[in-house]
Amino acid sequence: MATPNAASVPGRRVPYLNSRLQGFGTSVFAEMSALAVATGSVNLGQGFPDTDGPDEIAEAAIAAIRAGRNQYPPGRGVPELLRAVAEHQQHFYGLSFEPDSEVLVTAGATEAIASAILALAEVGDEVVMFEPYYDSYAACVAMAGASRRVVQLRPPEWSFDPEELAAAITPRTRLLLLNTPHNPTGKVFGRDELAEIARLCVERDILAVTDEVYEHLVYEGEHLPLAGFPGMRDRTVTISSGAKSFSFTGWKVGWACGAEPLIDAVRTAKQFLTFVSSAPFQPAIASALGLPDSYFHGAAEALRTRRDLLSAGLSALGAEVFPTAGTFFVTTDVASLGEGDAIAFCDSLPYRCGVVAIPSSVFYDDKAAGRTLVRWTFCKRLDVLEEALARLKRLAG
Ligand SMILES: Cc1ncc(COP(=O)(O)O)c(C=O)c1O
User: Is the beta carbon of 109 within 6 A of some atom in ligand 1?
Assistant: First the structure.
């Protein structure tokens, strides 16, 4: 059967699209999720859980709808969520932010990232980021008229060369974009690595934007916010959301924290993107942030079991599996399965096995570096993961 070249859709020319966005095409996640539906495949592509978060949080949203909290909320976010975000940062990391001036609610982390980049980068500036990188970063940098400089994370540890990072920061660099825990690799940046990144940001006087949406999904080591390192509190915009921590990805409640002048700038851009969003979901996520620590540990433990199942299963099939310390994802090198091109492999996988995965090259500028890497998500029910692994046995046949 013919296999549509879904994974390589990014890159085709789109009529009418401005030149800055040419090449971005359609998000690979949308493409692959559509392919999963069309082929009846198990979707281990897009990172959304197949079970909802706690009932009590869903009930809080329903109660907010019934209580009439359905009109535009305040531009900065509802007061109880601003307070809950500030208390969360204090409780987990000892970072203090003023709820009324140093916290901003956004339409998911996605809008916080877009607003931060649009607000902080000038046309012609450079933004440093690690590759592989989450796809929205490059698009937002392009929309801002800035350009990206990438520093590569190399398996199996997904480590970077500090000299490469130092060299990537030039006089035109405005900010560094950091994602930890890191999608797609599952890397959790360590204390020494973060200290080195912080040292360079201070020495070169650049800003940092951190994407910490997987902050509670850590299985080895611990999550450390860059803002907690010396000299970083007042030069970092820290971003997270309720999507991954609470399994409500469709609610799109995110936030940014930082020093008032930075948040003022981010808010200026944000107000002309969505203005506001998710009115009744904001108080619900506020109550979620106040759940006891046992909730957060339990959520990570449940995912650890899934990580272990998928990693062991992929390894048993003969794929080289890289250790994953956090997030929803595990990366394999399919060269060990005799596959020379992960895009062709992922395009054919729904037809060969009824499973969808993401070719990691979409997260790279250096396509050769990601050529045989595949990202699989384990944020699915155990029986779904078992079904996917059973189907993948067809690869051997
Ligand atoms: C690294 C990373 N950042 C941001 C997001 C988007 O977060 P949100 O749904 O809160 O916009 C995702 C979702 O997959 C992600 O993986």
Answer: yes
Work out which ligand 1 atom sits closest to the CA atom of 134: 1
Q: What is the pLDDT of residues 254-308, one digit of tens each?
A: 999 999 999 999 999 999 999 999 999 999 999 999 999 999 999 999 999 999 9
Q: Which atom of ligand 1 is nearest to the CA of 47?
A: 14
Q: Of all protein residues, whose CA lies closest to atom 7 belonging to ligand 1?
A: 109
Instruction: Decide whether any atom of ligand 1 lies within 6 Å of the 112 Cβ.
Output: no
Q: What are 4-19's pLDDT values in tens digits? A: 333 445 567 888 999 9
* pLDDT, position 43: 95
d(CA 109, ligand 1 centre) in Å = 6
HEC sequence for the chain: CCCCCHHHCCCCCCCCCCCCCCCCCCCHHHHHHHHHHHHCCEECCCCCCCCCCCHHHHHHHHHHHHCCCCCCCCCCCCHHHHHHHHHHHHHHHCCCCCCCCCEEEEEHHHHHHHHHHHHHCCCCCEEEEEECCCHHHHHHHHHCCCEEEEEECECCCCECCHHHHHHHCCCCEEEEEEECCCCCCCCCCCHHHHHHHHHHHHHCCCEEEEECCCCCCECCCCCCCHHHCCCCHHHEEEEEEHHHHHCCHHHCEEEEECCHHHHHHHHHHHCCCCCCCCCCHHHHHHHHHCCCHHHHHHHHHHHHHHHHHHHHHHHHCCCEECCCCECCEEEEEHHHHCCCCHHHHHHHHHHHCCEECEEHHHHCCCHHHHCCEEEEECCCCHHHHHHHHHHHHHHHC
pTM, two decimal places: 0.96
Q: Which two tokens stand for residue 220?
A: 């080895």
Ligand 1 within 6 A of 284 CB? no
Q: How far apart are CA 59 and CA 90, in angstroms?
A: 26
